[in-house]
Records
---
Amino acid sequence: MNQKTFIIGHKNPDTDSICSAIGYARFKQLQGDSQTVAIRAGEINPQTEFVLNTWQTAAPPFLPSLIPNVGQAMTPDVVYRHPETSIKEILQLIEENNIRLIPIADEQKRYRGIVSLFDIAQEFYWSANPQKGRVIFTSVNHIHQALGGKILFAENRNETFSAILLIGAMQESSFIRILSNLEPQKCVVITGDREEIQKAAIGYKVKALVVTGNLPVSASICEMAQQRQVNLVNSPYDSAVTMNLIKLSAPAYRVAQKRDGHLTAETPLEQAKPKILEARNRGMVVLDSEEKLIGIITRADLLRYAKPRLILVDHNELSQAVEGSSQAEIMEIIDHHRLANPQTLQPILFLNQPVGSTCTIIAKLYFDHQVDLDKQTAGLLLSGIISDTLNLKSPTATSLDARIMEKLNTIAGINIEEYSNQMFGAGTNLADCHPEEVVLNDFKEYKTDKITFGVGQIEVVGFGGLEKIKPQLIEGLKKARQSRTYHFSALLVTDISASNSLLIFDGTQNLLHRIDYPLLEPHIAELKGVLSRKKQLLPHLLTIFKDAEP
């Protein structure tokens, strides 16, 4: 089975993160890896939305979590049957499909129980009570379906009834003595061409008489059965086989069990494993919120389940990765940030270069490997570089970024200055943005030995719209810090036109005192000439928080 490999950037993705994921997925596909796809770990911000719309590209599918769940490991194409299906057909399905369990569900797939070989054997064969296997619940129609043969008379062939199986393989007097000690009207008698037994059974008005071996049944017996309203069936098999098949004519719902419970597709796999392993039937059904059957998961499914395969772009820290990444198999990392790489079980491709954008590295792969680069992909990669380097104004920008931008634009064919103004302008109307969206835009987590903190960044053209929402931004940072149990949270608001930034922040008192940028007012500092969170702000925060106590 071909397994997909997901290319994904960090949580709260920026334009570079999204465009590098799309660009690298296309690179891999062009090299023959059709199972590699781009996904995203967060919502698209306005700037990225502008870029995707400009280059007529759909956003990658949203994947909020990689924590393995039952839905990822289950078998969705379930072999199941209607509650009225005979046990005989259930056994045939088990044998033909080499499976152990058959779920039972109605026309709307509402779950009624599950049938296993163990359930069938326990119901009809494995019991300390020798009489238990003789009690059946069936109908004339079910008996006919199990046996084939002919229905010679049936008062109501679809009526279900409970009955005791009795083989008439003895003298008439012995048979009558046994039959009279039972409730004859609740007996199904199996016999061969013993007409005296046939007459006695009909005389006592048994529930049904089954004549075996395809032996002829006299007209007088047929007439007598009709007069006494006794169901009469002809079986092509001998008495022993007939008895077993009649047992198996019972509808599946009579045997179906719910004792092992059920799971939902959203149940974490680690939580489901003990239940599956302890289940008597070695598997469990998976139901939706309306208790409709959507899958089945067995011990074999647990063994077959493979960890998700990931390629990380624009980050190499699990704290910034999609939830559950620690349980995935990381295949490659392509990044331009500081090293905080996760452990891997085997060597992987790890490209980390001190450039301004991950899109620069990916575009260089296209050029180095002489892979055809279409206008759409070139435009996306160019947008990622413009965004992350602030159109080459950021101190993170390098000569390689500039050279790659120029080569990409020979394909994309845009006015970079006009385009970058439009792109940055798409995300700068702070007055129209919800404060929480502004705070969490491109928000990343960092750690020292004792301190955990988060920093977001947003680029604007002028600070004009900031004044009205400053209190809400401070409150949003406080909520973000408390909900994530951070010690400090901040938002870097960068004015592209003036090449300056403001730092809005909240934190514990001990950390607030360590902020040594010039304060314009409480919780707001001026950072002249600071444009880069990665190269200018983050190193400074890591330094002043290095030996700090929370």
Note: The CA atoms of residues 154 and 278 lie 46 Å apart.
---
Amino acid sequence: MIELGNVAFGYSSASLAVDGVSLVVGPGERVVLLGRNGSGKSTLGRLMNGSLVPRAGSVSVDGQRRELARLVGYVRQDPRNQIVSAVVSDEVAFGPRNLGLSREEVLRRTEDALSTCGIAHLGDRMTSELSGGQQQLLAIAGVVAMRPRYLVLDEVGSQLDDAARLRVSGIVRALVGQGVGVVDVAHSVESLFGADRVAVLASGRLVWQGAPEDFLRSDRALGLSGLASDPLARALAVAVAAGYRLPAEPDPEGLASYASAPSRVSRGEGSRTGTHELSCAHVGTSYDDVRALDDVSLAARGLTLVLGRSGSGKTTLGGVLAGVLEPDEGGAALDGRPVRVGDVGLALQRPEDQLFCDTVLDDIAYGPRQRGLGEDAALEAAREAASLLGVGEDLLERSPFELSGGQMRRVALAGVVACGRGALVLDEPTAGLDAESRQELREVARGLVERGAAVVVITHDAGEWLGDATSVALLREGRLVAVADPARAASDPVLYETAGLAAPFSVRLCAALGEVGDA
């Protein structure tokens, strides 16, 4: 078993990211680790697999205190920090080769892991050509191929569509059934399904642990985890109080019999339309022999969601709309004028890609300075954006690279918002954020729309955004297959099937409650 005894760790001498944590994870047990951004979850996961050495306390795995990485597989939140090979099949084979296995065994494990993770068809592709979601599945396959005794998953679903998340959940269930102990670092209440135990971190300390149903019964635990305001968490808490027991998989039909008020589920009434329009016409582009976008035309006013499976072309479309990617055919326009670089704010899928200054404040103020604002005005705009995104004054003088993944995402988004453009493209803006931060970000997006901006949100977390959307666009293999109003998108699972997607839990729950909207 994984045993942590009074473990402490800090990235600097002045503070501790993990402070006095004692935790045990047994073989064949799945423990969900919850907590707000910056609470120490990722640090604790890295301590478990030996990639960090504790400043105090002890970490042992099945009685061993060395070479823990051989026993505990670790899948990072950002797969690019884990991928080392140029070709997909070589990446999966890398770990088994380093275990000294025979060539035949390496090939067998590689094929099995690729098939298990649903990416066997990508075996000959370059890893750099994959979407973020495909790279995450690849990182999981690489760790699964090593067949560790324990597995730490650090927000691995944050870049995956619902169908891929279901696949990963199935992989985890199978591993647990084989006796593998799993620590699932998460922000989503859906992670509770199939969990044996929940542990909550706050400010680096373990402040609560217990069964999933007990977690949902505890206002204190919900509050400390940051999930108290999450609509699905509230619905599940009501259901558990009425006798509902969480099954191994999300079960909207079973939950529906305990849901007495359909109003608990957002009907996606939509936000205001806004005054600016961001559009593209007959856009097509390819990467070598892969057709990323094929004759896509879209007009976005208000808040437009762009949905699709990993690799469907969502991020490519965002780059075209923002003017940073020149398509092979067609083009983008803002209010009828061709988009130029700088006209449209763009928040990248990975926040660290656009952070480079010495301090958080300078990073946020960089855009306003480049757009010609004086120093005082630029700093004022930066501080206002930081406040909107929940970036506290205590972070402004710190290096952005000292922050947690969720904090870095807030800073990157604040830098985009500070420029005050009439259109923004946000690529997976809520990935890696805790529930309260996700809600704050949606409020920021609503405020931008109310001021007239056209906001395009590329996301795998459709269920969270449907209540704020003006329209919903669905991509499949580079083609625009549907554009729907938010009321239908919030209640019709069939719509998602047209894009090869699994409908979000909230949509399936609406359907189970008999709230299917007009087609």
Note: Confidence is low (pLDDT under 50) at residues 260-270.
---
Amino acid sequence: MMLSTTLLRLSVPAKPANRARLRRFMEGVTLWLAFLLLLFVQPLYAEANVADEVQPGLLHFTDGRGDWQEPALVLESDFDVTVSGLIADSRLTRRFRNTSDDWREGVFVFPLPEEASVYALTMTVGERTITGKVRPKEQARQEYAEARDSGRQAATVEQQRPNLFTSRVANIPPGEDITIELRYQQPVDYRDGQFSLRLPTTLTPRYMPGPLRPSGEASAWNKGWAIATREVPDAAAISPFTVQPEDVAADSHRVRISVSLNAGLPLADVTSPGHDLETRVDGQQVHVSPSAGAVLMNRDFVLRWRPVRGREPVAAVFHEQFGGEDFLMAMILPGVTPDQVLPRDLIFVIDTSGSMAGESIRQARLALGRGLDTLSGEDRFNVIQFNSQPHALFMAPVAANGNNLARARRYVDRLQAEGGTEMASALSLALGGAGSEATDDAARVRQVVFITDGAVSNEAGLFRQIREQLGDQRLFTVGIGSAPNMHFMREAARWGRGTYTAVSNPTDLGGPLEALFAAMEALVLTGLQTRWPVAGQEVFPERPGDLFRGEPLIQVVRGVAPEGQMAVSGLAPDGKRWQRTLDLGQAAGGTGLHRRWARAKIDSLLDRAKVQGKQPDEDQIVRLAMAHSLMSPFTSFVAVDSKPVRPGDDLLVADSVPTLLPAGTSAGMLRYPQTATLSPLLIALGLVGLMFSAAIVLLRGRVVL
């Protein structure tokens, strides 16, 4: 009734002045409605990508024509890990089970530990086992594509980032499965008297900075939710769809984990910050697994074990022969020196981008609060938050007095997560600008603490920026969330001459952060030098960085027999020379040392290319990777069966297997496959067009009733 009365009034001829006011009013209303509708276009587009018809427990895809496909492949995983000394050897098994009536190709983008050395691939089909071979990347792609198209079963795994890989499995028969087994090793982390191991199971969707690439340029060998940009040309290869556990089959995306610790010394405790554990002792071996059995692949599995007090190792050496050559790995942990705490300029940088929404931003705020608590009256500080752009609380570092600290805590408590992850501008502001101030105080130490989940895709550019802008500062990283990008955390700290840590959940804040901030207060050793009994051998790392409290020096060398002594020297905080020797004749047997050396050699070649601004020596890296059977940026594994199994007239359907959204992450980070038409978006665009049409008509002086 009210609407009819209003229309009737509008239809009555009005005076010119009233008509002008009415026209201006209608113009304003129309333009505001158009603006509001534009704001709602993106949510409607997202809604168009998530169909109401999708049944919980089954994930569907559409092909390029919008036709429905069958339920996605069921993914099952197993980690079987053996820890010996400072190296963990893992057998990762993936089972791709085809529940549909069509032949399938499975594509799965997945994380591995940031220092993983992948050295074997096998494919099992029924009673047949096919051993994979390492090949130059393009050759591996070609062999796989030819096998897939000819109906033969095949599998390939290639590296996208040091901690991100893609697995492809071709010609999975209807109602059957194919099993892929990866073998890799990773170093065990040892700091502050505690060993730790991280097994990543999922990844946080990464931000893709930079302008879009022209459509005519070559695209990456994969499909994802992201589009290639100038800074991230392989965006499509590192952006797997991310879904909730209820979006996949009830028995999919579960992992069973079994870890055997050959510690060689009595353990005080074995813990995990994110999983309840079942522990069984068998002589000197300790067998550990999650007490829940198969667990969701939405949280990294972190395992920590601590020797009985007084039995912590302070030095160790391991030996292996491979290909007729000797390989040694030595570890020395300097003793704790008297603290000499210097006044600091401490800059806290907190990531408030959209990927931090949910539990991550709460963890980050708590972590920053812990850092503020460590400041003394001699320190100065600043707080910088960043998402699509950075913002500093103060123009320059200010004194850590009560008023400034209270202001900072109020500021941090109000921070919310939204927007993009433009980390480059935040680094520029932290390492210069609001992160520093002209001063002649040479005794003042400048430190930057970067708190983030590391959900970035342009890591190489950021590492280069850190090296160029660091100066005499030190950069420390704190990984936040249940699945942080640990490759970024570790490498950013290495290029920043600092150290790193990770926080898995709020209950895990205490230990890791206390160790980090304690290490930041005083260095243990600087100017480190090592001397091996045989000169001129390739040792990695070539130039050890500064050591912080509780951090050991670990080096691996080729061509040195287990005899003689290794000497280490450095400068203590009080300026005195520190030195220690290690008897190589006491070396224990080790396995996989040659792979660790080869991986370190490859990393050094890549680092040298970054520093020089050149392309890495691909031929040398390929030869090194082939000799040690390793995956690298330029080599991949491929396994191909010799007998065709798929009839030539049967269609092969490709499924991009999604990853699970990390636990505690906001649902706004979901990246679903397309599962519906764009009708809601088209309706919204139509309404926008009508509003603009009405505005144009009104501007011409006509009232449409």
Note: Confidence is low (pLDDT under 50) at residues 1-14, 41-70, 674-682.
---
Amino acid sequence: MINKCSRRGFLKVSGAATAGLAVTSLCPDKFLLWAEEQGMVKSTLVPTYCEMCFWKCGAFAKVINGRVVKLEGNPLHPHCYGRLCARGNGGLGLLYDPDRLKKPLIRTGKRGDGQYREASWEEALDLVAQKMTAIKEKYGPESVALFTHGSPTAHFFPLLKAFGSPNVAMPSSAQCRGPRVVAYDLTTGVDIGSPERLDMVNSKVVVLIGSHLGENMHSSQVHDFTEAISRGAKFIVVDPRFSTAAGKAHTWLPIRPATDMALLLSWIHIILKEGWYDKEYVAKYTNGFEDMLGEFDEYTPEWAAKETDLPAEQIYETARLIARNSPAVAIHPGRHVTWDGQDVQRLRAIVILQAILGTWGRKGGIYLPTKAGLQPVPPPKAFPKPTQKPLNTGDFPFPGYAGVTNAVRESTITEKPYPVKAWIISGVNPLAALPNQDETRQAIDNLDLLVAIDVMPMDTTMLADVILPECTYLERHDAITPLKGRDLRVAIRQPAIEPMYDSKPAWWIARELGQRLGLEDYYPWETYEEKLEEDCLVWDVDFDQLKKEGVVIVSDTSNPYIGPGNEPVFKTDSKKIELYSEALEMEDFDPLPRYRRNEQPAEGEFRLLYGRSPVHTFSRTANNPVLNELYPENEVWVNADKARAMGLKSGDYVAVVNQDGVRSNRIKVKATERIRQDCVYMVHGFGQTSKRLSRAYLKGADDQQLITKYKVDPISGATGMRVNFVKLVKEA
């Protein structure tokens, strides 16, 4: 075996280039790439799409002798323009992370003590099927719930529906962008999309409200962000923290946290009062404008200045800058919008602002999506109708399409209106996603069965009764992804190498489990590739071309702006943008957004804010060997003057203690002038407690641990989590 693959060492062992093929798997990736350049070895490029975050950029995996040595962006994929970010390149770290789950595990000790034994797939799946069947017979199929995110959803969602349970919920909704979806649905009937259909490259003004482009690293939007800057667009960044985006802004508005609604209502006030709104557009494409008149009179810039801690002159100036440049104004609605429990109405204010400026369907604003689409492929057999009321909608009138995770958790604790006795979790880490970890643990303690399907031994995974190791996205097929933007494309995921260890793809796990549950009629195919080929036949997509190129354009008809014969489609009752929402009024909610003051921190306290690092995805990548090296632990940002007054300097370790006395693991201080004095900021996803994560274990502090308080949005059921107040305690 060679310990160090130099050119001399390689030739000494191999004697010839052909003999070298037998030992290439022992060599570092850089050497294999060098050997390819020298003609010693050959590579193949396998098209796929990334799963290091939800953006799912197109990629090519370069494979040499059964090893993935490099990842490159696919220029045909509109989410990345042929470039991968640091996280995308970190896919190699995930693939070859020695801490990966390698075999099925069955719990042998008490839940949470980390005691497991290895099992065969047959034993593990038989056990899960037996327990699910017993729960179904005793409590009904609805007593099994699925928490899911990302590509595994395409496999386990149909499994749960076939089993008879409607209780599927996604933290990406109730803990992330759910209120945004509801706000757009109520107001326009059409979602703004993912990626958002912002025509930034043609914008004259871009407004970011708590949206950290450049730190969330959504590749195509970061590209559009930089392109807009190069074309002279002015950026208005509303953020208590001087973010990366704020560093590129024409105007940074360091707003008092939890007062964004006041700023938005004041902007609407100025635009209406001074007649800046697009009168022709409003008359043609909106409904309820007359009912708005006079409703925003009280929200003057002078009033808003007292609420937001921003100068009234700056509020006037930014409103007029936005208005003068409309409709070429891109107002980003944000993605993680679960802030304070008034989130649907805050997002409604953004949509109303977009509408009265005439930005929907206009160049530089929000472009219209292609009218082309893919017809749904029906299941091989109709799903049974649930016999009980779904729990994943809670008692909320507009819960969104992806379910209310916290409502399912609450029913698991209370057993009302009926018991939930099993959770299947796939691609999610509820302890790091849902607020109040004690409630999540209490719910898990009330389960008869917790099954985790994951690549890594995450915190929640290590509480499971049965752990099923999923292979990485570079080792599996998944559902074909439609890419609906200016045109319609589809992207394929296919394995670059065979699954390592004894891990399996999610489609195989779902199929094997389905067969054991008597649901074999839903799986009339032997391999997932067969199903993908059948789907392509339905959609008239060339499957061979798709496998070869990774992305295929289904329809290149792009007509993104309003014009003759190209009117926008609004799926509301009036077929227009509903400024005044009768749907909300019928449910006894404000038909127009109103301002309600949020609680502010007491003297000596800070509001806890959290966000993302450009090299990490939530809690998923903290252990990644490649990405951990770039950013191994998080810091707590503290205003420099406040830090000095507390005797703190950058590099000192502190504990963060919240209003309920919950104390974090130690975390480094970052004393900076780039944040207001009334808040602190942490990157999310650190301080993990799973001992099997050798690099991430107890590195940094867990912000989610400190989010014991949350405000539930009464319209959507989403959890506002930026309502916790903390103090800093210097560590000895």
Note: Residues 180-367+574-586 form a domain with the Dimethylsulfoxide Reductase; domain 2 fold (CATH 3.40.228.10).
